[in-house]
Amino acid sequence: MAKKKEAAAGGTIKITQTGSPIRREKDQRATLIGLGLNKMHKTRELQDTPEVRGMIRKVAHMLSVEG
Fold first, then answer.
1. For a tag site, which of 40, 44, 48, 49 has the least CB within 10 Å?
2. What is the CATH number of domain 2-66?
3. Following DSSP, what letter does each residue of 37-67 receive, concatenated?
4. Average pLDDT over residues 34-61
5. pLDDT the model gives residue 8
6. pLDDT (tens digit per residue) in 8-39
7. How far apart are CA 59 and CA 33, in angstroms?
8. Domain-by-domain residue ranges, the chain?
9. Alpha carbon 44 to its chain's center
């Protein structure tokens, strides 16, 4: 329960797209778009939730994650 409160209180995670979605599966491209990434070297700061972590895990080979 404490983890959910931390995430809601402003726990964020910074992700940067380092790999190209060209020649990737459609679901991986859709996951990048869901994370708000669509161009190389674009960075987003998102809430640290289990849903976001699952999406990051799916396309981890194309991302750089901080914090």
1. 40
2. 3.30.1390.20
3. --STT-EEEEE--HHHHHHHHHTGGGEEEE-
4. 97
5. 52
6. 556 999 999 999 999 999 999 999 999 999 99
7. 11
8. 2-66
9. 8
